[in-house]
Design a protein that fits this description.
The structure holds two protein chains of two kinds.
Chain A: E1 5-7, E2 10-13, E3 19-24, E4 31-38, E5 42-50, E6 53-57, E7 64-68, E8 74-78, E9 87-94, E10 104-105, E11 109-113
Parallel strand pairs in A: 2-11
Antiparallel strand pairs in A: 1-3, 3-8, 4-5, 4-9, 5-6, 7-8, 9-10, 9-11
Chain B: E1 3-5, E2 10-14, E3 19-21, E4 24-26, E5 32-39, E6 46-52, E7 59-61, E8 64-69, E9 74-79, E10 88-96, E11 102-104, E12 108-113
Parallel strand pairs in B: 2-12
Antiparallel strand pairs in B: 1-4, 3-9, 5-6, 5-10, 7-8, 8-9, 10-11, 10-12
The chains are: A mainly beta, B mainly beta.
Chain lengths: 114, 114
């Protein structure tokens, strides 16, 4: 079966702009979670969606938001981009919440803010 | 506060050597889940193992083995007879049962030299 697909793979944006990243989970998976990976802070949890509802949120400012659609596809949005938002953004999908089962990750979207 | 420490930032070993990656976690909760993930150069995280706090039984899967010791709050990962394909960044992670927010360690970059 197809894996988790994240689009786009690479993105360059200017400070102050906004960006939307997309994640298509594995068919049948209802949980989608997002992570930010930077050299300084490492891997950090952003948020998790299950059945179109945000179930959990990490410690990120309100500029980071997301949503999940009825087909379980998810998008995350970052508004008013800052240089520090440059990172690899990873999405993961799982059948149910991640602590109960294995999460499958996409290859990520590498965002560069200039 | 919860924390995961991977003290080894980078390790290099020659192929066929055994190598152990250390993971020490901090939590006062009694119910939690521990994970190991592998991140190859392609970027996606690959699930290796999940262990709940009530299951201290060590596990072996092929060349991989895990040693979970609650007494020392450690969940170490050993690769036996390492291979070049094992070269990757390995992350240890913790999820508390009460809030579901995954906390990652900073990762250990493993180089297996031919």
């Amino acid at each position: 079966k197809a894996g988790v697909t994240q689009t786009p793979r690479y993105l360059i944006k200017t400070r102050g702009q906004q960006v939307t990243l997309s994640c298509s989970p594995i068919s049948g998976h209802r949980s989608v979670s997002w992570y930010q990976q930077t050299p300084g802070q490492g891997l950090q949890f952003l948020f998790e969606y299950f059945s179109e509802t945000q179930r959990n949120k990490g410690n990120f400012p309100g500029r980071f938001s997301g949503r999940q659609f009825s087909n379980s596809r998810s998008e995350m949005n970052v508004s008013t981009l800052e240089l520090g938002d440059s990172a690899l953004y990873l999405c993961a999908s799982s059948l149910v919440q991640g602590r109960y089962t294995e999460a499958f990750f996409g290859q990520g979207t590498r965002l560069t803010v200039v | 506060a919860q924390k995961v420490t991977q003290a080894q930032t980078e390790i290099s070993v020659v192929e066929k050597e055994d190598v152990t990656l250390d993971c020490v976690y901090e939590t006062r909760d009694t119910t939690y889940y521990l994970f190991w993930y592998k991140q190859p150069p392609s970027g996606e995280l690959v699930f290796l193992i999940r262990r709940n706090s009530f299951d201290e039984q060590n596990e072996i899967s092929g060349r991989y083995s895990w040693n979970f010791q609650k007494s020392t709050s450690s969940f170490n990962f050993t690769i036996t007879a390492s291979q070049v394909v094992d070269s990757a960044v390995y992350f240890c992670a913790l999820i508390l049962n009460r809030d579901d927010k995954i906390i990652f360690g900073k990762g250990t970059r493993l180089h297996i030299l031919p």
